Amino acid sequence: MKAEHNELITRVGPGTPCGQLMRKYWQPIALVDEFDPRFDPAMDKRPVKPVRSLGQDMVLFRDNQGAWGLIDRGCPHRGADMGYARYEDDGLRCPFHGWKFSTSGECTDTPGEPAGSHLCKHVRARNYPVQERSGVVFAWLGDEGSVPPPLPALDCLTAPGTHTFAFKGLWNCNWLQAFEVGIDPVHASFLHRFFNDETLDAAYGRQFRGASLGVLNGERVPMTKVMREFCQPDIQFESTDLGWRLNTQRRLNDELTHVRVTQAIFPNTFVIPLSETITITQMHMAVDDTHNYWYAFFTSFADPLDKEAMRNQRLEAVSLPDYIPKSGQHNNWGFNAEEQRTATFLGMGESDINVHDQWACESMGAIQDRTQEHLGTSDKVIMANRRMLIKAIESVQAGGPAPGLANPVVAGSRHGPDTVDGIAPSSDTASWWQNAVAKKRADAPWPAAINN
């Protein structure tokens, strides 16, 4: 890749071509949990949180009616930091001169001005549309006055709260290299290789460790076994309204093939199976050019999720209130040479594979230098996605449309999208995975069916 193209597809700040494209899509801005005093006691009296997305600094807050507000961090008066604003039940008041702003950005009080002043009518804080869904607050950072598309009608945002759970974590690297891990089918056979399988029932909610591919010869087959023993998959992919559908097949023998269908949702989301009945929708929100938060939505098509168990399991790996991983370059991501020799291919723990992905992404550098890559056949989806990204940036720069969920028709339509992981008859893998998805949706206790 040329250096100028690498710059083009990684820089997301205000005024950059890729940043302009990314502002055509809703971005996750915070977990609702971040405003829960159980996890951040400061929120008990002051539900105000500075946030950063696409290189912009803002303040997210919630008034006493439960309405969310997202405004620029600099006060419209003289630019003082609204991250330190006084919280009042119906808005934020700047400590510099007492100017007050509502969740809609309206200036409601300028107490230092002369009596009868109408200055408030001419001043607004730049505010951004926000929506809460599935435990996450989403923000629209598009041009002021522009109309956002609907929040996407994805499974993770339409399933009931009992069947969804969201979490996040910060990575010290560019958003694109983090996203590209999720559309790389081969890395799981190496980066997430475990030398021994464990009891599936003892690994609730843990990626790969708790995943079964179904029943073979009367026994549930751990995903870890197939990933370990079959590391040269056949990767097929096709374009969809959302981005790409990946169909990765590992032929076990003449009769049986492991089929894993995943989805890439342009520009920064992928959907993968966690187990036979739970999917993960992961969005990589660019904080700025060199940091990103992954937001993972778990969606169950069977039993309600044990949110407390899943949350507590993941809280062990991060520091609150900002969800910063406890492992990182500062402690070599927890690397253990003996573990690498005897237990895992990487040597960075068996309980949380996010650390594995974190190492792969952060160790590339803050912004990966793609001019030094040597890509292979197994990277064909990554190459296709980069071409799509460049084409989309060029379209928006020329005044044209952005693809996928930036289109209101696409965003407002139920797409799922579908994922599956299991063992199929080699003679007809296509019918198998489509039937498996249809059954999963038909058996779901919530309206998961999609009428295409």
Explain how this protein is built:
The protein has 452 residues and is of the alpha+beta class. The protein folds into two domains: 27-139, Rieske [2Fe-2S] iron-sulphur domain (Rieske Iron-sulfur Protein), CATH 2.102.10.10; 155-443, no CATH class. It has eleven helices and 22 strands. Strands 11, 14, 15, 16, 17, 18, 19 and 22 form an eight-stranded antiparallel sheet that branches. A four-stranded antiparallel sheet has the order 5-6-7-8, with no helix packed on it. A three-stranded antiparallel sheet has the order 1-10-9, with no helix packed on it. Strand 7 (100-101) and strand 8 (107-109) form a beta hairpin. The longest helix has 18 residues, at 380-397.
User: What is the count of helical runs?
Assistant: 11
Query: What is the radius of gyration?
Result: 23 Å
Structural class: alpha+beta
Shape: globular
Describe the main β-sheet briefly.
8 strands, antiparallel
The end-to-end distance, rounded to whole angstroms, is 38 Å
Number of strands: 22
- Rounded mean pLDDT is 93
Poorly predicted runs: none
Strand content: 25-35%
The number of domains is 2
Q: Percentage of helical residues? A: 10-25%
